[in-house]
What does this fold into?
Amino acid sequence: MNIVLFGAPGAGKGAQAERISSMYGMVHLSTGEMLRSAITSGSDLGASAKETIDQGNLVPDDVIVKIVDARMDEGDCGEGVILDGFPRTVAQAKALDDMLAGKGLALDHVIEIKVDEDALFARIEKRALERRRTGTARSDDNADTLRKRLAVYHENTAPLLPYYLEKGVLRSVDGMRSIEDVATQIDNLLG
Ligand code: AMP
It folds into this structure.
């Protein structure tokens, strides 16, 4: 089973993807995490992506598509993947369709974690504070970048909703409930 977990920054995709991955034995593929580890390892990819990420902008489609494509070719992805943070543009979604078709795979579900727009900023700020407190702060955890990431979501990523709605694979859960409740809603969808 291959799933896209979709939602604005702060919707809680990471936590749900982690849980689904361990529960259903699927690979959790987070493009944000892949980029952050590329930065930590000092690779060329990391060096070229760091400024873009720190500014809250999107890394170019061709760069992201290439790293996802390469990761999907690794053996462990054969049992299914849960994509978190990818695709983020319609061009990436189309590339994903082609990529899956080329590997003889299909996209089974796109699960949108729906959150109240007004609650988002407070939610991401709280999460950033918590990361600072525990020494796991991200370099894109400041207020300006958070604002930019939300704007980028609206402009580039939200248009994926009608794209997937038309394909008939989009399902939504109420992301304003507790983590456990959101998890139950997702489990019900996955049946
Ligand atoms: P995330 O951890 O998913 O919030 O991603 C952190 C940052 O990595 C984003 O703000 C982007 O700069 C970059 N990034 C992650 N995934 C993508 C993607 N699919 N396309 C472009 N940029 C991405």
Observations:
- Strands lie at 3-6, 27-30, 81-84, 109-114, 170-174.
- The chain has a mean pLDDT of 93.
- The chain has one domain: 3-185.
- The CA atoms of residues 96 and 165 lie 16 Å apart.
